[in-house]
Design a protein that fits this description.
heterodimer; A: Mth169, Chain: A; three-stranded antiparallel β-sheet; B: globular
């Protein structure tokens, strides 16, 4: 299976890159873009056909490596 | 006395730390490659500055899994003095040897300049010879030095006197303008609960000789030497 892991800064953590992108968009006239949060995206090719096992494995990898729980949260999509 | 300087792929201040320990202080020093599993009898361990693993994923994130870190964690757990400088501080945070994380600088700029930090506490092996309120002029060189932790953690750090260095101006005042990166509470360096693990973003090892513009960093090295001498570990 393939797992997609989306890592983003927690809402309480200021994201200066996202803010800069948002300000740039505003100056370009995209005034309806209220805010931007920048994150990271990972694709994991997993050696299992079980969705449960795939989710558990992706979660473990995200907890241990892909995301830093001090500043980041993540969500997982499977396909 | 023996200093161990851990070398990760991408470390680039390892020689500065080695030079300070060996040539400026005149103590034994050894580079320890990150694939080693022993610290070879070191009395002090330094995680140096640089860009371990090219800052891939997050600063310090990959280095925490290097084989040598098992020995470094055991050394810290046994009370050994462990100093993380810049990227070394980031590695300590990623390893959970210190709380919090270092975020991208508030202004998104890489800051390469001399800053001032105020010594907040002298009850660590690396600040023993400093005085509370002493102002040190030290260089910084980082893009991700913006100290962050959740509110409870910061409160706990403050309440237990674990903020060791704070960015300040020439008169020792903590101001927004004197904070180069947006760190919460102007935190430049902290220690762990047992106070033997210290991490800071500025580079004391690059400020140990007058031609470099400042000798203020020496106090960290002198302190740890004195701390170990007091424990009877001084053999060199």
């Amino acid at each position: 299976m393939r797992a997609r892991v989306f890592v983003t800064l927690k809402p309480s953590v200021f994201d200066p890159q996202g803010r800069t992108i948002a300000e740039s968009l505003h100056s370009m006239g995209f005034g309806k873009v209220a805010d931007v949060r920048q994150g990271k995206y990972f694709e994991l090719e997993l050696d299992t056909d079980s969705a449960d096992k795939a989710r558990a494995l992706a979660s473990e990898v995200a907890d241990k490596v892909l995301a830093n729980p001090v500043i980041e949260s993540y969500r997982i999509e499977l396909e | 006395m023996k200093f161990a300087v851990i070398v990760f792929p991408g470390s680039n201040c390892d020689h500065d730390a080695y030079h300070a320990a060996k040539h400026v202080l005149g103590h034994d020093a050894e580079f320890i490659w990150h694939k080693e599993t022993s610290l070879k009898g070191a009395d002090v361990v330094i995680l140096p500055g640089g860009f371990s693993y090219g800052d891939y994923l997050r600063t310090g994130a990959i280095a925490q899994f290097s084989p040598v870190m098992t020995a470094v964690k055991a050394f810290a757990a046994a009370g050994g003095p462990l100093l993380g400088i810049c990227n070394g501080f980031q590695v300590l945070c990623e390893s959970r040897l210190l709380p919090g994380a270092l975020l991208r600088n508030r202004d998104l700029k890489f800051h390469c300049e001399h800053v001032r930090v105020r010594v907040e506490r002298t009850d660590t092996p690396f600040t023993l010879h400093a005085s509370v309120g002493q102002i040190l002029s030290l260089p910084v060189a980082h893009g991700e030095g913006n100290y962050f932790a959740d509110a409870d953690t910061v409160e706990r750090l403050e309440a237990s006197g674990r903020v060791i260095f704070r960015y300040c101006d020439a008169s020792g005042q903590v101001t927004e303008a004197a904070n180069p990166n947006g760190s919460l509470n102007a935190i430049a360096g902290i220690c762990n609960e047992t106070r033997n693990v210290v991490g800071l973003m500025p580079h004391p090892e690059r400020a140990c000789e007058s031609p470099l513009g400042s000798k203020d960093g020496l106090v960290l090295f002198d302190s740890v030497v004195a701390s170990l001498a007091a424990k009877g570990a001084l053999t060199a």
